[in-house]
Design a protein that fits this description.
Number of helices: 7
Strand content: 25-35%
Order of helices and strands: HHHEEEEEEHEEHEHEH
Strand order of the largest sheet: 1-4-5-7-8-10
Largest sheet: 6 strands, mixed
Radius of gyration: 19 Å
Number of strands: 10
Shape: globular
CATH topology: Trna Endonuclease, Chain: A, domain 1
Helix content: 25-40%
Structural class: alpha+beta
Length: about 200
């Protein structure tokens, strides 16, 4: 969802054509290949504001080594490393249950490579499921402008099969659920969660 300040480039002077193009682009699939995280974050903001769920992106734990201070207002991290491997991208609470998920996007038209999911993430998903939480992966095939919710058990099973290196687009369509898009929320993924887990 475009917020007013993002759309208008505030505080610069308002240009009606720019606003109309920004509004129209929110309904267009063009140029959305790299926006999965933004779409999920905007959806989560909407769910939080409407009191439907409390779900947030987890910050990646980093250790800052060096910071460049050209001036007080423009400090920039120039060297850092990951302190510990991250788990999954998002977690929170929905309808009294813990919810935890990873988000990935690929440009490949035929497969989702399983190497994009790491062993520690699979272990984390298993723990979430073991403790009764809801766990899944949101996959976007940017070539088709399609986003799917795939249950974590499907991902775990494929990952642990030594003969399987990827999930085919066809398998994702069969095992997952296509997430509908709208203006608010951008991705209606909680509708799929309602259908699959409650």
């Amino acid at each position: 969802m475009l917020k007013g300040d993002d759309m208008i480039n505030y505080p610069t002077k308002l240009n009606r054509n720019n606003v109309m193009n920004a509004q129209n682009s929110s309904y267009s699939h063009r140029g959305r290949g790299m926006s999965l995280e933004k779409d999920i974050n905007d959806s989560n903001d909407y769910y939080l504001k409407t009191d439907r769920a409390c779900i947030h992106k987890k910050p990646t734990p980093i250790q800052v080594v060096r910071v460049d201070y050209p001036n007080r207002a423009h400090a920039k991290i120039v060297e850092a490393y990951y302190k510990i491997p991250s788990t999954t991208d998002y977690n929170g609470v929905y309808r009294g249950k813990a919810i935890d998920f990873e988000a990935k996007q690929v440009q490949n038209k035929t497969v989702f490579p399983l190497q994009l999911i790491h062993p520690h993430q699979i272990d984390h998903m298993k723990r979430v499921i073991h403790h009764g939480g809801i766990c899944f992966v949101i996959l976007r095939f940017t070539s088709y402008n399609e986003t799917y919710l795939v249950d974590a058990k499907v991902m775990i099973q494929a990952y642990e099969d030594e003969n399987t290196k990827s999930l085919s687009y066809k398998k994702v369509k069969e095992a997952g659920k296509l997430i509908q898009e709208s203006f608010t929320p951008r991705l209606k993924y909680l509708d799929i969660v309602d259908e699959m887990y409650f």
